[in-house]
Amino acid sequence: MFDKVLIANRGEIAVRVIRACQELGVRTVAVYSEAARLSPHVLLAGEAVLIGPAPAAESYQRAEAIIDAAPQTGAQAVHPGYGFMAESPEFARRVLEADLVFVGPPPEAIAEMGDKTAARSRMIEAGVPVVPGSDAITEVAEGVAAGDRIGWPVLLKAAAGGGGKGMRVIESAEDLPRALSAASREAGQAFGDSRVYLEKYLSDPRHIEIQILADTHGRVIHLGERECSIQRRHQKLVEEAPSPAVDADLRARMGDVAVAAAEAVGYVGAGTVEFLYQNGEFYFLEMNTRIQVEHPVTEFVTGVDLVQEQIRIAAGLPMSVEVSPDWPLGHAIECRISGEDPFSGFFPSSGRIRALEVPCGPGVRWDGGIMEHYEVGLNYDPLLGKLIVHAATRDQAILRMRRALRELQIEGIRTTQPFHLGVLDEEDFKAGDISVRYLDRHPELVETGEGDWQARAAAVAATLLEHRTRVSGGGVTVTAASAARATGAISEWRRRLGTFD
User: Fold this and answer.
1) Which of 290, 400, 414, 470 is catalytic?
2) Which of 176, 129, 171 is nearest to 151 (CA)?
């Protein structure tokens, strides 16, 4: 086992990795930006190294600064968490070239599964069912020909990324030229790679994923599925395990396919194979070559600490997991609590956490990256923490999550907590009748008010102006007039988070 591990991340996932290391008797090194000097992950780690200013491009995405911090502190391995450079094959290579261990799969596997068009081709070779689609397209004529072959409508997707960036639903050939230009531009900004491709648009699928583990001793296993269908703009909001739609036979079939996908690329470590499921058929969507945000629900229903297994595997040890015929053990649900206003188009909310009270009691877990007096800004993902519950049945888990959400108190900013309470009270969710179109069917849960574009623009500008004022130490009060004068900041908002189409 390693003596010391450096965590190349921030927020709740950095805290999660630090805790796993502590339970393995491994010392930890945190890295942090100037905006995160007093963050929970910095205070929890054994050591911490400043790596740059607040913007991620100047800190958490500076490979050289992170890698240089490892020998300075005696760290032998680097855990990337999720996001930032977790799925960068170049970062993984540079870690290995520095004689460090990368806690993740080989760079070649990251590269192969990170390129969505290459991954599709490899999965077809491995006999994995995939959604009908195309290779990368650069010209409108190519796209029209591919769309005619696949059948309209189609989904335009970034070849080098995920999370909804660069993704568009194209109803007909007439809609393709404008969408192709916008999607390519957005993909280039988000991933440094403007290539896009087409997939058949499934009208009402579920998003179901399989957790896998693979070690260096030849074992590849799956740990069952997670249901991740409740999404907004392809960003997951609620996850659960097991899926209400998956029985033992389907679980075994999807698990076997996921294992075959991992074996096809020589995978090592923890990974997730994602599928779309509709009308009794499932199709490969992509593989995430890292730990997932929603991994705690799988940990609850299997009793396996996935992050500890990641670290064991990276150290060259065999995984300690024995597959149980009793899996899944009960039911688990996770709600992602973000600093966003769900009733105003999920606009971000920044400010100081004045008070924080996290729920506890039987079967309740809080994976958080905030604390009282923590300053929530706009430089990073708005995820504040994850509330996870476990119970014997799905109905009991829903009741437990409702209780836990009511106990959760975060004062100082707006959060998605009331949205989650609304979902848990909604009849289709309680019946397990969900899909990726769930929010389209239940707009009352979000009430975005998207028709009033000027009001939304002013709200965005006000948020950015308040953030800039706070960062600069000024005392300006944001008024309607000052917000109106700041509407030029909308272009910056588009570039940062892609909130507007």
Assistant:
1) 290
2) 171
